[in-house]
Amino acid sequence: MSDRPDVPRSHGRLAIRPSLQPRELGGPPTLKGAWQARVVTLFPEAFPGTLGLSLTGKALDMGLWALETIDLRSFGEGKHRNVDDNPAGGGAGMVLRADIVARALDAAAVGTPPERPRWPVVYLSPRGRPFSQAMARDWAQAEGLTLLCGRFEGVDQRVLDAYAVEEVSLGDFVLTGGEIAAQALIDATVRLIPRVLGNHVSTEEESFSEGLLEFPQYTRPTVWQDRAIPEILLSGHHANISRWRRAEAERLTKERRPDLWRAYLAAQGRDPDEDREL
């Protein structure tokens, strides 16, 4: 990576130069009141990435949502724009400095509401709260979201505390940085914004939307390799189809995600311990 802050960085459709201000990625001007994602990262060239493809990319071009990057390196110190230092107390790796990250978060906060429910600020971290569909729904109803992508051994805890940054995890594994996780979280959120998917009803039938995994899906051909679509799905009886799908969703959740199944029963006021198979 070049140490010069004036070197252009490619973002697919747009050439971006690092700046102390967020840079918007995408096509035409964003529609008034559109949801925004701001990403603090050492690798702004990683965006929009997959977010620029398919329906999310089309919605980005239409201005239904906006994507901006804040290059953390721009706030570094010295000739080499250093952003990290040795961990206090010793140990391997490097830690992103609190003062450097604070400058980037200040830039990302320009023009945003201070209330966290209206504009969450999130650090992608393996030790964070597990990301969920419910969190995506909450974020989609906010005005926007700032994501801090970590690197190395992480971020100085003081800046996370001072800026009330919420730590969120994509799962029980470790990545080399937060950029991939940030794209996943943004994608899960953006698709819940009205008009992005076109058919908003489809999001109501997906896995996790009602605490259950999604039922199996089928399409043509009716018979493939001697495997037929369940007859009930071809019956045209919508009430029976709905009952079958609910039963299948419950079966799959019970088999594959006992944790979700117990939470689902508890939410319905049913005692999870009554299910002896679990």
From TrEMBL:
Limits of the tRNA methyltransferase TRMD/TRM10-type domain: 38-262
Keyword Transferase: yes
Domain of life according to the entry: Bacteria
Cytoplasm keyword on record: yes
A Gene Ontology biological process term: tRNA N1-guanine methylation
Example GO molecular function: tRNA (guanine(37)-N1)-methyltransferase activity
This enzyme's EC code(s): 2.1.1.228
Database matches in Pfam families: tRNA_m1G_MT (PF01746)
UniProt binding sites for S-adenosyl-L-methionine: 150, 170-175
Family indicated by similarity: Belongs to the RNA methyltransferase TrmD family.
Protein name listed in UniProt: tRNA (guanine-N(1)-)-methyltransferase
Organism of this sequence: Cereibacter azotoformans
